From TrEMBL:
SMART domains: SMC_hinge. CDD domains: ABC_SMC_barmotin. Residues 419-538 form the SMC hinge domain. This is Chromosome partition protein Smc. Belongs to the SMC family. It comes from Faecalibacillus intestinalis. InterPro entries: P-loop_NTPase, RecF/RecN/SMC_N, SMC, SMC_hinge, SMC_hinge_sf, SMC_prok. Its main location: cytoplasm. Residues 235-262, 321-362, 572-613, 668-716 form a coiled coil. ATP binds at P32, N33, G34, C35, G36, K37, S38, N39. Required for chromosome condensation and partitioning.
Length: 986
């Protein structure tokens, strides 16, 4: 490998593009001072990656770009390309020619590297050159400054050149990388150790919590299986009992209805009989009047017969026709007056009869009204009884708290003597009735939570329950209750949502000053108008809150929905409200009953008055009848007299002829027959009436029995209804426990939990398990998952820790190995160079001896390099004590010794022999020649001796001021170039 060509453009004094071609062997570059020779070695160093501005003899990287001259403008880009012949593939790059380019733009100070015209990184170039002997820090570019510095530099600084020669740079670089990696690994390890330590601290308590949670879950599972079985058993028992009660009630109600119907029919039949008796009485009365008349007719006819007989006797003895005619005229006048009076009285009798009929009709209407009133009062009494029964049940539920859990009841009995037990939460709440359903469903079982003054009271109460085996209860210690509310963003958002009515706690109050408890239980429960809006509100708030509706539906936290019919038996609020309503209803019914009774009283008074008026009317009718009868009798008498007299006159004639006697006998017979018929009729009617009386008595007695039976059945219905309500209460209590504590429906539970259990034993088991769960105290269920996570993280981190420790060990081992290699390589190369140094020195100095030595032999990796030399005839001395020329010669000796041990493909020597005398220049040139077999030399020189050994010579000129140009020259021209320099420079 050798450098074939350098292309420079815009680099320092190379304003124009300049191509310098080289060949293996020695190429000399000559020229006057300042014409740009050293800029060539700068260009090579720059392309090989030099980053030090000082090494490039500038103060800023942009100083390498052509800065302009008297006649030329400054340039914006510096570009240098080195073209190597790589046919021997010394560079690990599969091309015969390798071009390495570096560019720098003035704008933005941007640098670019290219490898065979392809953009690349500086690292790519450095890696390519690694171990080739080329590079910014290698021996490939040696300046006059390097040579003089070599002698004067500190032993530690001098070491670098030997390291480069020993080829340990790449190991040093790798070691630095490994140390950095070790530092990073150590940092990571420390960080992970901290984490592992933290996790170890967490893991032990978490493990305890996890184990406790597992025990809890096992107990809970066992409890669930047993208690659900118990609940299923209780529910099924109650259902069975309720079914039986329902059948019994159905039967009783049917019997009640049929008795009712029977009573109604019997009462109707009784009324019918009474009506018939009334009609029959009237008929009998009428027949009796007719009988009286008939009897008087018979009597009259018999008297007439006697009279006729006498008259006939008398008439036949003494009657005078003229007297009779006179008497007849008188009687006619009297008769006319009597007829008028009689007609008048009859008319008045008819009027009275009419008003009697009206009154009687009025009496019928009144009687019907009174019957209606009785019926209505009867109905009211029944309804009052029904409501009183319900009231009794509700009073039992609300005031005696019979629907409360055993534990709650036990504590509330204590509460009379303890003001610190404030009360059952549901009983302490006040709200408008339209929010009853929402509050009831929102609180659910919390309605029976007990509010205590503080935590101590709650714990005392729990101890009491435990000591007395009095059941369980949940407590809300007022002092510890944290108010809950909507998050600020939701409090702003919700009022804008359709159907949002507010937070439920705003609709509830209490006279007991328990606002904290209300806010704790209801402060984050949203009230919505219906289920659709509730669902939307829940969605908008990411199902973070419970949303309840006015009709008792719920969208739970997390988005599940609960709804349907609300069980009123479970809510003390709804029971209280129902009790109020039943009481109001009872007041209303009782007031109505009083009104009805008053109205009945009035109707009965009216009936009495009417009866009185009717009696008066009947009396006046009877009197009038007597008068009419009197008048009639008078008329009859007068008529009789008149007729009798006129008859007498006719009779007289007829007596004489015997006709009257026959007629009277016929009439009398007729009258007797009529009287007997009437008597017969009356007799049969009376018998009929008697049969009605009997029938009526039987009906009345039957009705009495039926009413007694009805009352008895009503009593049974009431008893069964109370029992049924109690069972329903217990049933609902069990169902709500299934639902609230185990989230199961009865159907689901009975399908999945139908073990045959000894129920008494199971109840005992439930109590024991519950006590065991309580004894566990606070349980953190999340601990199971947290422990899993933390232990998995711990495992992970611990394994990372072990990996890192392993990695750390490997890196340390690698560093040790690299150290061993470096020591080995460095000391081997050092020994070789030391040997060659003595040889080269002796040749250059013509005798004497020289050696290099470690300043710290115990630390080969860091030791400085000292040089001891003894030129011929002089004492052994340190290099620093020699003259400039001697120092340069010693440095050159060392350079050639190194090149011998570690040849480089190319070496640029920039006026390194400037300080040597002519004889030494010649020796130097001889060495160049000798080494040029293995190394390509490019020498910048002013010395003829060196020029003579060059295979190719270039002369640097500045024909245009400030711009370097290169021309190929022959030896003589080169000497001229140098002489020009000596004569006066540029
Ligand atoms: N950025 C730049 N733009 C233009 N010219 C530059 C720039 N940097 C350096 N130069 C010029 O380069 C010249 C120095 O070149 P260099 O040091 O290579 O000379 P030389 O031939 O090695 O001299 P000597 O024989 O004295 O060592 C100076 O004239 C300097 O003005």
């Amino acid at each position: 490998m050798y450098l074939k060509k350098i292309e420079l453009h815009g680099f320092k004094s190379f304003a124009d593009k300049v191509n310098i071609e080289f060949q293996p062997g020695i190429t000399g570059i000559v020229g006057p001072n300042g014409c740009g020779k050293s800029n060539i070695s700068d260009a090579v160093r720059w392309v090989l990656g030099e980053q030090s501005v000082k090494s490039l003899r500038g103060s800023n990287m942009a100083d390498v770009i052509f800065a302009g001259s008297q006649d030329r403008r400054a340039q914006n880009l510096a570009e240098v390309t080195l073209i190597f012949d790589n046919s021997d593939r010394m560079l690990n790059y599969d091309y015969n020619e390798v071009e390495i380019t570096r560019r720098l733009y003035r704008q933005g100070n941007e640098a670019e590297y290219l490898l065979n015209r392809q953009q690349c990184r500086l690292k790519d170039i450095t890696d390519l050159l690694l171990d080739t002997g080329l590079g910014r820090d290698s021996l490939s570019i040696i300046s006059q400054g390097n040579i003089s510095n070599f002698a004067d530099s500190r032993p530690e600084e001098r070491r670098a050149i030997f390291e480069e020669a020993a080829g340990v740079s790449k190991y040093k670089k790798r070691k630095i990388e490994a140390i950095r990696k070790l530092e990073r690994t150590t940092d990571n390890l420390n960080r992970i150790k901290d984490i592992v330590y933290e996790l170890e601290k967490q893991i032990a308590p978490l493990k305890k919590q996890k184990e406790k949670a597992e025990v809890f879950l096992t107990l809970k599972e066992k409890l669930t299986s047993i208690e659900v079985n118990v609940l299923v058993h209780e529910v099924s028992e109650l259902k069975h009992q309720l079914d039986t009660l329902s059948l019994q009630l159905k039967d009783l109600n049917e019997r009640h209805s049929s008795l009712d119907a029977e009573i109604f029919l019997k009462e109707s039949a009784d009324d019918e009989i009474k009506k018939k008796m009334f009609v029959l009485d009237n008929e009998i009365n009428s027949l009796q009047s007719q009988l009286l008349e008939s009897m008087s007719e018979v009597s009259r006819l018999e008297t007439s017969k006697i009279e006729v007989d006498q008259k006939r006797k008398h008439a036949l003895q003494s009657q005078n026709s003229d007297d009779i005619k006179k008497k007849l005229d008188n009687l006619k006048a009297i008769l006319t007056d009597l007829i008028e009076e009689y007609n008048d009285r009859v008319e008045r009798l008819k009027t009275t009869e009419k008003s009697l009929e009206d009154l009687s009709q009025e009496q019928t209407v009144l009687t019907s009204k009174i019957n209606h009133k009785h019926q209505s009062i009867n109905d009211l009494n029944q309804e009052i009884t029904k409501n009183k029964n319900r009231q009794e049940i509700l009073v039992d539920l609300v005031e005696n708290k019979s629907n409360y859990h055993h534990g709650v009841k036990a504590i509330m009995e204590l509460a009379h003597d303890n003001p610190d037990i404030i009360g059952v939460f549901g009983d302490l709440l006040e709200n408008d009735s339209k929010y009853d359903l929402a509050v009831s469903v929102a609180l659910g079982s919390a309605l029976q939570f007990i509010v205590t003054k503080d935590n101590l009271q709650a714990r005392l109460a729990i101890k009491f329950l435990k000591d007395n085996k009095a059941g369980r209860a949940t407590f809300l210690p007022l002092a510890d209750m944290e108010p809950r509310s909507l998050r600020e963003e939701h409090a702003i958002l919700c009022p804008a949502l359709e159907g949002y009515l507010g937070v439920l706690s705003d609709f509830v109050s209490s006279s007991k000053n328990i606002d904290n408890v209300i806010l704790n239980q209801l402060g984050n429960v949203i009230l919505a108008d219906d289920i659709d809006h509730a669902y939307e509100i829940s969605k908008a708030t990411y199902a973070r809150y419970k949303v309840v509706t006015l009709d008792g539906n719920i969208v739970n936290v997390g988005g599940s929905l609960t709804g349907g019919t609300v069980n009123r038996q479970q809510s003390s609020i709804l029971q209280k409200r129902e009790l109020e309503k039943v009481k109001e209803k009872l007041d209303e019914l009782e007031q109505k009953l009083v009104r009805e009774k008053n109205e009945l009283l009035k109707l009965e008074n009216d009936a009495k008055e009417l009866a009185h008026t009717l009696l008066q009317k009947q009396m006046s009718y009877a009197k009038l009848e007597v008068v009419v009868q009197g008048k009639k009798e008078e008329l009859v008498v007068a008529k009789g007299e008149y007729e009798s007299l006129s008859h007498q006159s006719v009779e007289l004639d007829e007596f004489k002829s015997g006709k009257i006697d026959n007629q009277l006998v016929l009439q009398l017979n007729e009258a007797i027959k009529h009287r007997d018929e009437l008597t017969e009729k009356i007799k049969s009617k009376r018998e009929l009436r008697m049969s009605y009386v009997n029938e009526n008595e039987q009906l009345e007695s039957k009705l009495k029995d039926l009413r007694r039976m009805l009352k008895d059945i009503q009593g049974q219905i009431n008893e069964k209804a109370i029992l049924s309500t109690k069972y329903e209460g217990s049933l609902n209590n069990y169902l709500s426990r299934l639902s609230n504590e185990y989230s199961m429906t009865y159907e689901y539970a009975s399908e999945n939990y139908h073990d045959e259990v000894d129920i008494e034993f199971a109840r005992g088991e439930v109590a024991t398990l519950r006590n065991e769960i309580v004894a566990l105290g606070h349980v953190n269920i999340d601990a199971i998952e947290e422990y899993k996570e933390v232990s998995s993280r711990y495992e992970n981190m611990n394994s990372q820790r072990l990996d890192l420790i392993q990695a750390q060990d490997k890196i340390v081992q690698a560093i040790d190995e690299m150290d061993q290699i470096m020591i080995e390589k460095f000391s081997t190369t050092f020994e070789k160079i030391n040997k060659e140094f003595n040889n080269v020195f002796r040749e250059l100095f013509g005798g004497g001896r020289a050696q290099i030595k470690y300043t710290d032999p115990d630390n080969i990796l860091e030791t400085g390099i000292d040089i001891d030399v003894q030129p011929p005839g002089k004492a052994v001395s340190n290099i620093t004590l020699f003259s400039g020329g001697e120092k340069a010669l010693i440095a050159i000796s060392c350079l050639f010794a190194i090149l011998k041990v570690r040849p480089v493909p190319m070496c640029i020597l920039d006026e390194v022999e400037a300080a040597l005398d002519m004889a030494n220049v010649e020796r130097f040139a001889k060495f160049l020649r000798e080494f040029s077999k293995q190394t390509q030399f490019i020498v910048v020189t002013h010395r003829e001796g060196t020029m003579e050994e060059c295979d190719l010579l270039y002369g640097a000129t500045m024909q245009q001021k400030g711009v370097t140009k290169l021309v190929s020259v022959k030896l003589e021209e080169a000497i001229d170039f140098s002489n020009e320099n000596r004569k006066g420079g540029i």
